[in-house]
Amino acid sequence: MLVCAGLANTHDCLYEAGITRYEHRHVISLGRLSHQATLQAATQSLRVIVGTGIEGHDKTLYSLAERIAEASDHWPRHLTCYLHGVCEMLITQRAPSLAKVDIEKTLEKGHQLRQDYYQQRLQRSGLPASIVSAFYERVDKEPISRKAAASILKRAMDDNTSEEAEELRNDFPQGRDAFNQALQAGIVTINDKDVCEIPIPSMRDFVIETDRATQALTCTAK
């Protein structure tokens, strides 16, 4: 499921399973779809919705599919969020019709679902946005190996004097513990060269913005 969502690849899945001797052709990393593939997926999904009895002419359907495909940044998981947004809009209508769907509100809802998805990933990692944000900024600057990444996370926790960081040190006594948790949560991935990568660029932006917002609230409180 993580591979299909572009959050992991089979190289990492095999590594976690203890399988280290395999051919490169067995490594699969799907990630982003092409524009045509995204548009086709959106169109087919909307056709399924229309097939349930919802009113929707081809011109309206294609126009909506194009806006959704563009907003998704061609990531499968994002596409699902915007399609859910369409369904939520239809549910509120007395006589459901794609023609009456407010596209701007739909995209806004889909964007919020994306944000919720990122937040779930962040919470699943057990790491605060401040540490993940610092880690992301480091990964953006230069290629980092799995071992180096574990050390970076360990150092970030050791340098942080907050009560939250103290709890983290108890939960993750070693750097690789924190890194493995981030890996399983889809916060970071490993490519076939054993180099860390940020799975989805917009997730990086969300984590960094979340960290900044938290810092701003802290400063205001003080």
What is the string of SSEs from the N terminus onward? HHHHHHHHHEEH
How many beta-strand elements? 2
Give the CA-based shape: globular
Radius of gyration: 20 Å
Largest sheet geometry: 2 strands, antiparallel
Helical content class: 55-70%
Beta-strand portion reads: under 5%
Low-confidence parts = none
- Which structural class do the helices and strands define? mainly alpha
Distance between the termini: 43 Å
Trace the largest sheet across and list its strands.
Answer: 1-2
Determine the number of helices (DSSP H or I, runs of at least 4 residues): 10
Mean pLDDT score: 84
Question: How is this structure best summarized?
Answer:
The protein is mainly alpha-helical and 222 residues long. 65% of the residues lie in helices and 2% in strands. Helix 7 packs across helix 9 (175-184).
